[in-house]
């Protein structure tokens, strides 16, 4: 990994640690409910899980969310997304979000490529 490149495995690991701690507080029910919402939203329906994860990655890029990029690229790898699917999703995000999305699209591509090396 080159200097200045974000370590998405470390980012998502740190977020998971924080969330584990938060689950031991009075916020546990809210986190449980968020998990239920996530499961329901990602369930296969008119759109399959991979399409929904591509949409989630696009929103994460548009919202400049490092954790979202890390978690959704990992899910996309697990779901068998291709380089072209991820690249076209990122291109749409840049089209709709302009320069700031372009910067995060570069980050998302780096995260995606790092997963391909695993």
Can you tell me the number of structural domains?
1
Radius of gyration: 15 Å
Q: What percent strand?
A: under 5%
Query: What would the average pLDDT be, to the nearest integer?
Result: 94
The name of the CATH architecture is Up-down Bundle
Question: What is the total tally of β strands?
Answer: 0
How large is the count of helical segments? 5
- Poorly predicted runs are none
Oligomer: single chain
Helix content: over 70%
Global outline: globular
Helix/strand class: mainly alpha
- Element string (H = helix, E = strand): HHHHH
Key descriptive features of the protein:
118 residues; mainly alpha; AhpD-like; 5 helices; 77% helix; 0% strand; CMD-like
Topology:
Blueprint: H1 8-22, H2 28-42, H3 49-62, H4 66-78, H5 83-116
What's this entry about, in short?
The protein is built from 5 helices and no strands. It is an all-alpha fold.
Question: Please, could you describe this protein's structure?
Answer:
The chain has 5 helices and no strands. It has 118 residues and is mainly α. It has a single domain, classed as Up-down Bundle (AhpD-like), CATH 1.20.1290.10. Helix 3 crosses helix 5.
